[in-house]
Amino acid sequence: MPTADAHRAVEAVWRIESARVIAGLARMVNDVGLAEEFAQDALVAALEEWPQKGIPDNPGAWLMRTAKHRAIDQFRRRDTYDRKLQQVGHDMEIRQESAEAELDDALDDHIGDDLLRLIFTACHPVLPAEGRLALTLRLLGGLTTEEIARAFLVPEPTVGQRISRAKRTLADKQVPIELPPPSELPTRLASILEVIYLIFNEGYAASTGEDWIRPSLCEEAMRLGRVLAGLLPNEPEVHGLLALMEIQASRIPARTAPDGSPILLLDQDRSRWDRLLIRRGLTALGRAESLGTLGPYALQAAIAACHARALTADATDWPRMAALYRLLSHVSPSPIVELNRAVAVSMADGPAAGLEIVDTLLSDRSLRDYPQLPAVRGDLLARLGQATEAAEAFERAADLTRNARERTLFLSRAAALRQP
């Protein structure tokens, strides 16, 4: 097989299988840093051997087996071989062949539990948000440091440091690679959902750079969401988050013009929305609703569904959306929720009603540098015929945003309002 083709095959297999391999190894060695090292050793071996010997029939099992043997070899060299093997219930020196078969079974069984353990570990609240993001994409997404850096538009060494610090913190704090007890599950699960949604949002509405959206991050977040929904099928907020992401992602084909410039929601060609993603999202929302009281993510999905179900912007059920935002503000109060509620209220009851809500947020320090606050205010002022004040608000939004496409959009709105 040509080397280039083999390397592409290795990369594809790694993207699919790396999380499973690392998860199984992490349970074996109880250290995510070591587990990733052994998995990376297997990746290097594949890059060396597959071009010469061909791709094995079961490439995922080959990676797992190779990584396992690298781990065993290192345990031998460290004179901790017996102790480590006892941790997984084996005596390799006495019965090598039997023990290897048992160890294969140990690594292959309970893959779902292993992945859950890895997810809970990578998203452990002892880590800062940026560390959780980077470590999750590295361990569970199979992304390289370079790919993560490119996705978030930060220097590659910075991402490398975040990943290294996260691994070191987990080791120093002796965070066990295990599922949390039931009493901690809500808090720990909330941390995981936050990480996945942060990844999605950075793709859906890029905070920096030249591009309005980065679909690859959205796709990775949805993939993680689907994995989590399969592992925790009875958690309503898991399905709520998946529904929210899939419904929002359905709009991606219509969110930009051919030149990459943004197209706002009410101006989008809804025939370009991805109907398959909408159906998937509505199904996930139905699953969340069937499991009990809706949490913040499911409520946001229900709001997104109001747009998805409307064939035209005029057909949107704005009163229902405003009511859902009011409910969301009680369940998960935040100034950003209030800002979004103001938009829905303005569409249901008129721009003056929305502006009244927005003006109560002007003194909120947490929104001081948030570009969407003056942008929403500018839009409402424009609808009320106050062109000069609206233009000033859009110019303020342009000063605050770090996204080039968004800045151009705000400045064009301001320029149009200043024309006689």
From TrEMBL:
Entry keyword set: Sigma factor, Transcription, Transcription regulation
InterPro entries: DUF6596, RNA_pol_sigma-70_dom, RNA_pol_sigma70_r2, RNA_pol_sigma70_r4_t2, RNA_pol_sigma_r2, RNA_pol_sigma_r3/r4-like, WH-like_DNA-bd_sf
Residue ranges of every copy of the RNA polymerase sigma-70 region domain listed in the record: 20-79
GO terms under biological process: DNA-templated transcription initiation
UniProt keyword RNA-binding, yes or no: no
Domain DUF6596: start-end pairs: 188-288
RNA polymerase sigma factor 70 region 4 type domain mapped to chain residues: 119-170
Molecular-function GO term, any one: sigma factor activity
Family in the record: Belongs to the sigma-70 factor family. ECF subfamily.
Record's protein name: RNA polymerase sigma factor (Sigma-70 family)
Source organism per UniProt: Nonomuraea soli
